[in-house]
Automatic annotation (TrEMBL):
CDD domains: AAA. Residues 208-329 form the AAA+ ATPase domain. One of its GO terms (molecular function) is ATP binding. Keywords: ATP-binding, Nucleotide-binding. Pfam families: DUF815 (PF05673). This is ATP-binding protein.
Length: 405
């Protein structure tokens, strides 16, 4: 393939147009542009090669593995249509053509690129000092077909690279370093979590799944349970979107976009509570009840709260001037009923607290007689305001750091 064709095929990408925004691919495009322009001297080409390699080497020395990964994770019109079960013949033809080109591009070396440009022997010798990137052969069409068949688990675009997201101005933003919490690190509340896990498995299987309210005492692991479940089932196609209470009004539009995604999503609202006149109250009702088109089957809301009824109510609210005060109070208190599954996390009694301590001590390698450990932990819990899994973990971490002896 001549240089002009390499350059034209890169500029003419349609299905994989987004690859041109990739910082490494963009540097390769700039390199072929400079070579095609035939700039006098070696400086412009040398500079472009160096910029491309510097960008590539930030990730890997193998150009083939980098490009193939970018292709497999790219969000394209084809993968979106295939996820919904249809792919137009014209798109299939374009997809096949571009995959064949990109497979050839994965094996392109600097020497082959110089030869394609018809470079003189002298120019090749002048650029001999530059590093040579590695390449790898891959059956890209087969790999892409396999990836498309697994799109419901591996996703595409940013959903293929990340499994936890936050919301900024109505758009999803990936969390690059999510909390690595695992279920095995949360002893003592297995029975409570099992209900949430069963609901999550139903969501992943495409079966009817409930919105979930996890409520109870502070420090009992409600939020940690949701994060750990998200980590546990990420390989099965689960993604977690953390939503702040003041962002609830942005969520309906976001849910409409996620409804067409083949992955499954948990909208996670942590530490949820409202005042009686809170505008976000109506927004949450709309999210839980769904739009006129019904609730998306691939989305569930998981919320945590220290309050069973979610609404902060005062005695003044009960003796106010609302003529239909009973109806108003009933509406406020019924919000929690809109969660199909409510799981209670109560402050641990002594036996459960000791079980949690014993397991955490084992996980952290704490070498202390159990009776001594329990006595010290009880004293620590009294100072910390009472027993809880959070207090148990704080105590064990202090033991690990040598603070508790």
């Amino acid at each position: 393939m001549k240089l002009r064709e390499w350059n034209a095929r890169l500029h003419g990408l349609v299905v994989f147009r987004s690859l041109l925004d990739d910082p490494v691919v963009a540097k390769l495009l700039d390199l072929t542009d400079r070579m095609e322009a035939g700039a006098p001297g070696y400086g412009p080409v040398c500079d472009a090669v160096a910029q491309f390699e510097a960008a590539l080497f930030e990730h890997t020395t193998n150009w083939g593995s980098y490009l193939s990964a970018a292709v497999l994770e790219a969000e394209t019109v084809c993968v979106r249509q295939a996820a919904s079960g249809t792919l137009a013949p014209a798109l299939q033809t374009a997809l096949d053509s571009e995959l064949a080109f990109l497979q050839a591009l994965c094996g392109l070396t600097l020497d082959e690129l110089l030869a394609a440009a018809g470079s003189a022997t002298g120019q090749a010798q002048e650029l001999a000092f530059l590093p040579r990137w590695e390449t790898s052969s891959i059956d890209l069409p087969a790999a892409y077909a396999q990836r498309m068949s697994e799109v419901g688990k591996k996703g595409y675009g940013m959903f293929a690279k990340h499994h936890v997201f936050t919301v900024e101005n109505g758009h999803l933003v990936p969390v690059k370093y999510p909390d690595p919490q695992r279920l095995s690190e949360l002893p003592g509340y297995e029975k409570e979590r099992e209900k949430v896990i069963a609901n999550t498995k139903a969501l992943l299987a495409g079966m009817p799944a409930n919105n979930v309210l996890l409520y109870g005492d502070a420090g009992t692991g409600k939020s940690s349970a949701v994060k750990a479940i998200a980590n546990e089932f990420a390989p099965e196609g689960l993604r977690l979107v953390e939503v702040k209470k003041n962002q609830l009004y942005q969520i309906p539009d976001l849910m409409d976009k996620l409804a067409a995604n083949p992955l499954k999503f948990i909208l996670f609202i942590d530490d949820l509570s409202f005042t009686a006149n809170d505008d976000n109250f109506a927004a949450l009702k709309a999210i839980l009840e769904g739009s006129v088109g019904g609730r998306a089957k691939n989305i569930a809301v998981y919320a945590t709260s220290n309050r069973r009824h979610l609404i902060k109510e005062t005695l003044t609210d009960r003796t106010g001037d609302d003529i239909h005060e009973a109806d108003t109070r009933q509406e406020l208190m019924s919000l929690s009923a809109r969660f199909g599954l409510t799981v209670t996390f109560q402050r641990p009694e002594k036996a459960r607290f000791e079980t949690i301590l014993a397991e955490l001590a084992k996980q952290h390698g704490i070498d202390m007689p159990m009776d001594q450990l329990l006595v010290k932990a009880e004293a620590f819990a009294i100072r910390a305001g009472g027993r809880s899994p959070r207090v148990a973990k704080q105590f064990i971490e202090q033991c690990e750091a040598g603070v508790q002896k």
